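User: Here's a chain of 255 residues. Predict its fold as tokens.
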Amino acid sequence: MTNSMRNVVTTTTAVALAALFAGCASPTPNVTSEPSATESASAEPEVLDPASAAVTEYLDAIMLGNIAGAWEMLSPETQATYNDSPTTYADYAADNETVTAHEAKLLSDAALVVTPGPENGFQVVSAQVGGVADAWVVRESDAGLRIDDPGVPPTGERPFTWTNPADGVFDAATPPTIYFQKTFGPGGETDVIGGPPDAIVGYADGAEVVVTRDASSGAGAAFVADVPAGARVLTVVWAPEVGNKLWQSSTVTLD
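Assistant: Prediction complete.
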């Protein structure tokens, strides 16, 4: 998800084969040549890898307002964050920092970049066009290949804040930093329901980067990403709960 909202590109190369047909005795008959291999290959749609295909299907569903179709592409663990209710998902998806229909339309024209994800068999699929960027964790689930895209929980506080970029403005003089605050239930400090993650991974322009916890960040925790100079987009993904297969993400632009 982007904070205002949320790299390997596969291409197919065709090899041309030419066919030469000899004429017959006069009068010369009309000869219709078969399409060349190049022409046939160019007419075929590009075959996407499974992770890109899943994200494309998800974006298409959101862009077309097909809430049921988008819901089916979500992992069971993501669906559980909406109380396993597609109605709740429909009510919250428009403004809970998951991709909107407008953003999905823009991103549908972007090249999808696929990077190995935070665990074996996981992939992070990123897209960026103009000032809009997003990324999704794609993984196998009990329901097949699905997407983790939980957004801000329907109940409870937003679990994180970007302190750089802040309010969408990136200060290149300091590294990108995201802060996770602790949230408490009715029992106060003895009832912690959310806090800094134990596992967090960063991706700058589709390449994995180191994300380090700042030990001096108080009750919560700040995490600093080591991004190369000139990086345009940063995504961090983290596991909100130990033992839960779900991964959450946030993406920000750095230019």
